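Narrative of activities, Objective 1.

The group set out to show that a structural description can be obtained from nothing but a protein's sequence at a throughput compatible with the screening campaign. Below is one input-output pair from the validation batch, recorded exactly as produced.
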Amino acid sequence: MNNQNLNSIRPSVIVCIALLACLPAAYAQDGAEFQAPFVTLMNSIINLFTGVFARSLATLAVIGLGLAAMIGRLTWTAAIRVIVGIVLIFGAASVVKLLTGGQGPDSQIGQSQPVYSAAHQPPERFNRV
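Output recorded for this entry:
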């Protein structure tokens, strides 16, 4: 390309970059309305994987491990895989919360609670000076 073609492209590239830079500010004003369906979908997926259905599957997996052990077919590799899988699925919200400084998915679906609130104060024996 020659220099004249580059000079004609530069203003349009600058305008595109400026418009892209303005997009986050535009979405910041109405971000909640834009994100609401996605947050609802993600919370539904989290509830599916950590709710009653997932607990039932985990219980069936542990029962399967027990049956395999009872007939002598349990390998430690399979047992460790199932147990680690259960721990990771049900501990995922805690791991994310730990890594992100308390902004994990469980804080969005209302499962996290403060240790001490204004209504719940520690006993007087802990307030020694």
